[in-house]
Write a structure and sequence with these properties.
single chain, four-stranded parallel beta sheet, four-stranded mixed beta sheet, alpha/beta, about 200 residues, 8 strands, globular
């Protein structure tokens, strides 16, 4: 059975940075989802986690959607084909629930491994400032996401979700890698370890 690691966390929690590092070190592929949001400053389709499309283009993918969510009026989704070719998916709680239901509905041979990146509100605001976000816009997004994240956090104790408290980057990377290795079959585990050694040797 294919395993897909679903990385869940609020904006500015560091989920994308952690995911990119671990995926690169282990040679894993990250889901590149579709979105209707505009590019951020310095963002391109080459360095982003997303393909940028217009609202008019969304209907073209409607029959292929396997995960879908909306944030601040912008649509985010991915397709079954993209999912089958990927190992890690950065996703929000609503998208994760949508994905879980569809995997069951369509009897896909995929097991989801959710990993929650948790950071305090004060630290999130500081990180948002450092990356150049307008703090008022950030807080607006934080509040708009609050209900889904609060409900998700309430379910953590009974849902088997792995939690990473991301207060120290290196420790978080270490824990992230251990979670992945623990859940992979032996052959893939060995490949990840070999790839990781190669990356360390080239630094």
């Amino acid at each position: 059975m294919k395993k897909l690691f679903c990385i869940i966390g609020r904006s500015a929690s560091g989920k994308s940075s952690l995911t990119k590092t671990v995926a690169k070190d282990f040679g894993l592929k990250v889901v590149k989802s579709y979105t209707t949001r505009p590019m951020r400053e310095g963002e391109t389709e080459q360095n982003s986690d997303h393909y940028f499309i217009s609202d008019d283009e969304v209907n073209f993918y409607k029959n292929q959607m396997i995960a879908y969510t909306e944030i601040n009026g912008y649509k985010y989704f991915t397709t079954t084909d993209v999912l089958k070719q990927s190992d890690i998916y950065v996703i929000d709680p609503e998208g994760y629930q949508f994905l879980s239901k569809n995997i069951e509905k369509y009897h896909l041979n995929i097991k989801l491994i959710p990993i929650y990146i948790k950071v305090s509100k004060d630290e999130l605001c500081e990180r948002a400032k450092k990356r150049g976000d307008n703090i008022q816009s950030y807080l607006k997004r934080y509040n708009s996401e609050n209900l889904q994240f609060e409900n998700f956090e309430k379910s953590l104790s009974r849902s088997g979700v792995e939690v990473i408290h991301n207060f120290d980057y290196e420790r978080s990377i270490y824990r992230f890698k251990n979670i992945i290795l623990h859940n992979l079959p032996i052959v893939r585990k060995i490949k990840c370890k070999i790839n990781n050694l190669k990356k360390k040797g080239s630094r």
